[in-house]
Amino acid sequence: MSDNYGDIRSEAKALVEKFVELEVEHQAMLAFNRALAESGDLDDIHSWTNEKKALELQVYSDQWRGEIASWFADITEMFDDLADLPDPAPLRSEAEGLYGALALLAGPSGHTDIADGTVHGPAEAFEKLSAIPTMLVDWEGHAAEAFKLNFIPPLERVAFHEFEAVVSLRSPLIAAAYMWEKAREDVSNLIDEANSALDDYSGGKDSADAVLALGIIGAIVAVAAVPFTGGTSAALYWTMAGSAIAVTGAVVGHPNEPEKQLDISGDSPADIAQSLRDAIWKLKLQLLEHELFISRQIRTLSDQINGYTAPKGTPPIPRDPPYYSTEHSYSESTVHEFALPRPLLADATPGNVNDDGYLGTPK
Amino acid sequence: MTAAPEYLETLTAEAETPDGTAFARLRGTSDISVSFVPGYYAQTTEARLADKLTQLGRLLWVARMREYYRLKSDLLNREVRGEGRPRNERQAARREARDSIVASGRSDDGRVELSAVGLLSWSATVAPGTVRQVSEEAFTAACAQAAERLVEDHLWQLKLVWASASTGRSLG
Hints:
heterodimer, A: mainly alpha, 2 domains, two-stranded antiparallel sheet, two-stranded antiparallel ribbon, 12 helices, 60% helix, B: alpha+beta, three-stranded antiparallel sheet, 6 helices, 48% helix, 20% strand, globular, transmembrane helix (chain A), transmembrane (chain A), membrane (chain A)
């Protein structure tokens, strides 16, 4: 397909012009056919000279072109809405900007970013993690115990969850970038398909059965399924998307099963225009679905990071303030999946640092 | 009339009779040229020439269709082989009417007369004495003229047939 997104307005204008030209001709032929039926003089119309044909068409066009053009005016507006779709490049660079965070959070063993298959090796900062209990063998007291028991052991797990959280943040960015990239292609392709259907009409052919497959349908699929299927299996995606994006296995939404193919065809230019309107409408709906899906993923992620993912059976604690509504409720048991408890020493002052609650006093 | 898009203006199709003696070339919709292997024209008969034109017309049309769908497949980046099955009875009837269009074309000198049913089945008449009386150049020019007129006649009738079977809105 042509990659001509930059020229959408002028291409749409040319397309509308073609619709009008062919519909005027179509209507003229209908009128000639009616005249033929009324006069019953079959030979007459078939024996018109080229000059006579051109003249009759011109007379008809002069009278009706304005009205017929009004039938297609809305198509220009429909493409106006699609002429300034977001540029995917800045979204991609935002996603790339998170590489640094992933490298740091890869922990002592390293992890793979499932959004694009990048392998991040062990992070240097965690090198000494396993040696810490030995190094701190002489440190005693409440703080020491809390540090050794509650901070060091879960650190790798927490870092991994944070790594997954960043992955989950990147995934919607990549999905959004891919979505807009494909949406731009789809818009160009819709124009190509409409032109093609008009060429078929004009050449006396019905359009082929094959129909346009929307690229945006595969957009999020490809992002979620890349490391496993190379982006080829949409079916897998419907079960995959959740696991790629959910950090601790909470149930997340899936986009609605989309209209995969659109058919631009018709018996007349006006019919073809109607199928184009339907296709544009479906494309726009699909864009909305995708955006909603992506924003839901981000909210779910945000909920999980903030501990708003109550396990089953946990009485929900209402969120405060309710910035947005989800089905999640606050849970003490999951809040520390992403952030370790605040160290006790953080609140210590020179006056109380040696109290039993903090460092304690050597005995 | 509407100008055809560039890829249809420059579409080129070629045909050759199975015995390799006669050739035809089409550019755009109706710009057709005919040629023969050197020496063939001077030695042949009008009946044979007519037979070659009959074959060339059909083969050229088939070649054009193939090229049309090849270009279309390129343009749309997916394989388009043809029309597919009619989607309803109205379409089926419309196609039948299209394929039954009888179009004809005659050269100014009256030596070459062509007719075709739906551009699928062609017939040709070459006036007696042509080979002796006119040069190969004049004859092939007459063929091109007759063929162009036939295609134009077909397209005009096609527009009438195509419009008559549609269900779109209509006015005056």
